[in-house]
Design a protein that fits this description.
alpha/beta; eight-stranded parallel β-sheet; two-stranded antiparallel sheet; 10 strands; globular; binds NADPH dihydro-nicotinamide-adenine-dinucleotide phosphate
């Protein structure tokens, strides 16, 4: 298993499994298929509404709990110190685990950054008490990371951000490299370019990626995953289809050349697919996370 070492020495599989938009009634089967394929990292979130089914799949899989790296995210409605401590309790209860491997803040809340800091302070407390093994953030831009580092003690282990060939956020990635923060790529095969109208064409249909894929006898999705892995990013592709779950895991028997990596780097469009981080507010995005 290929692993990355986080800034506190904890290791994480370089290739994990995402469950955003996986309906609760399909989550158990998807996670079952992923674990049977060999994935040992699952990325969920309070906001996805499927933590319970992720936990059930892990518990029923026959794979030791200690061999599965479980990551989830605190939603903005649970920001603030006490609220986030309670958010951890809700997540652990739904997942059916005592300890969460990686707990991260889902978004910065720029309009209420004190609450964001309070939430992160709670993550630090959970880390100190060994309720979680590592802590981090998601969708934090350089200005949010800079303000966070000024206010807290523990450097986030990860920043989970949108990264695919059409939108790579290189300045955020560079900040991560400088400060020892691993970039986790969400929409690593460009999902947001084809499941949302984000002003892009689909990365899966990109002619340059297609040519590289043909040259290696691989698929466009496999080429994109390989691009991330060779550039040191952690990836969490999502699928509900067993054949794609297997395809996305089969990326360790080929390597892209420097020229191929540069070609993919050159596909940048500068167009974000996900929400503009500066616009995330409780008024627009808040919704309560259920207790059970
Ligand atoms: P992905 O880049 O993983 O793409 C997923 C989409 O691609 C789905 O529509 C899936 O459909 C399809 N797909 C999967 N594998 C293949 C393949 N081999 N060939 C063709 N199509 C394929 O996008 P996601 O947005 O899901 O990102 C991955 C994970 O990142 C999420 O599941 C979540 O864990 C995380 N994430 C985090 C966010 C954040 O704000 N922190 C935001 C968005 C995602 P199907 O299931 O039908 O196969």
């Amino acid at each position: 298993m290929h692993e990355l070492t986080l800034n506190n020495g904890v290791t994480i599989p370089a290739l994990g499994f995402g469950v955003f938009q996986t309906p609760p009634d399909e989550t158990r089967a998807a996670v079952d298929a992923a674990l049977a394929t060999g994935y040992r990292h699952i990325d969920t979130a309070a906001a996805y509404g499927n933590e319970r089914q992720v936990g059930e799949a892990i518990a029923g899989s026959g794979v030791d709990r200690s061999d599965v790296f479980v990551e989830t995210k605190i939603w903005i409605s649970d920001y603030g110190y006490d609220e986030t401590l309670h958010g951890f309790e809700k997540a652990a209860r739904k997942l059916g685990v005592d300890q969460i491997d990686l707990l991260i803040l889902h978004q910065a809340l720029p309009s209420d950054f004190d609450k964001t800091i309070g939430a992160y302070r709670a993550l630090e407390k959970l880390l100190a008490d060994a309720d979680v093994r590592a802590i981090g953030v998601s969708n934090f831009m350089v200005e949010h990371l800079t303000a966070l580092l000024d206010a807290v003690d523990v450097v986030p282990a990860v920043n989970q951000i949108e990264v695919h060939p059409y939108f790579a956020q290189r300045e955020v990635q560079a900040f991560g490299v400088e400060h020892g923060i691993v970039t986790q790529a969400w929409a690593p095969i460009g999902g947001i370019t084809f499941y949302r109208d984000s002003g892009h064409t689909s990365t899966l249909e990109d002619p340059s990626i297609g040519e590289i894929a043909t040259a290696h006898g691989k698929s466009p999705a496999q080429v994109m995953l390989r691009w991330h892995l060779q550039q040191g990013r952690q990836v969490i592709p999502k699928s509900v289809r067993p054949e794609r779950i297997a395809e996305n895991f089969d990326v360790f028997d080929f390597a892209l050349t420097d020229a191929e990596l540069a070609t993919i780097d050159g596909l940048e469009t500068g167009k974000r697919g996900g929400p503009e981080p500066a616009d995330v507010t409780l008024a627009a995005w808040g919704r309560p996370v259920p207790e059970d």
